[in-house]
Amino acid sequence: MKNIKVKLFSGATAAIALCIAVFFGIFRAALPGVINFSPDCKLSECGFGGTTLCRTSDGYAYYFGNIPIKTAKTVVKERQNVILCGTPFGIKIKSDGVMVVKAEFPAKDAGLKEGDVIISVNGESVSTNSDISRAVQLCSDSTSVVLERDDREMCFEFAPKQEDGCLKIGVFVRDSAAGVGTLTFIDPETKTFGGLGHSVSDVTTGETIPLGSGEITKAEIFGIVKGKSGSAGELCGLIFSGSETGKLTKNTESGVFGEYSGEISGDIYPAAFRQEVKAGPAQILTTIDSNAPKAYSIEIERINLLDLDGSKSMVIKITDPELIEQTGGIVRGMSGSPIIQDGKFAGAVTHVLVNDPTRGYAVFAENMLSEALS
Q: Which of these, 183, 190, 202, 290, could form a disulfide with 195 (CB 3.0-4.6 Å)?
């Protein structure tokens, strides 16, 4: 009996030790190897997940208490200052190529699938559904389709089918998208803008739409569908045609970016480096009616170490009673609403948790600015 107890104890100890090792391994891998900071930053405030960044004989390292976790490189950068908006804007995108949203015979049998971006058909460049239909008619025996999949270019050849007197290859495609989001910031010097906090994706496939061209326009919120558990709400917005305020140049995981040409107004805020953003009280600046943007209280619940470079860098919770009463929390159309913490631009709202609309995700300001100005 004693030997059994010793073996159980040893096994439990080994399991605990393994769990600790795995935890610190994941924790170490998640910590960024490069930290950007300005001369006014305090190194003691440059850690993540309860760590501190300390100077060592070889440079810098993250410490968890007195335990060194990982070495880090530091890069001194000037802190950026931007105008925060929190205003609705219309987004219109034409894709670079044509995205497949559904594939049927014969395309499906040949290997085409959802999310593929068709570049050319029978040697003809395509950017619309009409382009594909026209190009397919060029050859009745065999159709050549060049497409992009996972950043690779691929070519498929197969025979089209005859249907209703026309040749068809069996793909349903989307060549454009439009919607309403929230404009996050404008750089007063370069006139570069950023908004949405995440990419414009196809509603069917969930894939980011490759940007061919696009513009942003004026928009106005005229109604609210309140969010509730299991059902995401929405800001109902109207896009004003012929009111272009900027050109889109990027559609990325961190948001949409481009060159702003409209009237610029708003308060200037210094941008926080991501390691300066902490769990605790903050505000979002957003517009939920036809009036000007307004600040509402939120809580940054935690920093998401496993997505520091993505659009789900923070978990946030709406705490403002007025906003909860009006919208139920975070709703579609609110994506891009800037987050302010300690007088700095900390990030932007990106996603809602459908089962609890008062909670959602946000992206770091540093992530958006790095993408906008790269």
A: 183
For the question of residue 351 being annotated catalytic, the response is: no
CB count, 10 Å around CB of 114? 17
What domains does the chain contain, in order, with CATH numbers? 2-76 (no CATH), 81-92+176-372 (2.40.10.120), 105-169 (2.30.42.10)
Active-site annotation holder among 95, 175, 320, 351: 320
Q: CA-CA distance, 358 to 61, in Å (whole number)?
A: 36
Active-site residue identified among 95, 335, 337, 351: 335
- Does this model's pTM top 0.85? My answer is yes
Cα 155–chain centre separation:
30
What span, in angstroms and rounded, lies between the C-alpha atoms of 304 and 291? 33
For 9, 20, 62, 81, 363, the CA distances from 268, given in Å and listed in that order, are 60, 45, 32, 6, 19
Question: Which listed residue (187, 198, 313, 351) is catalytic?
Answer: 198
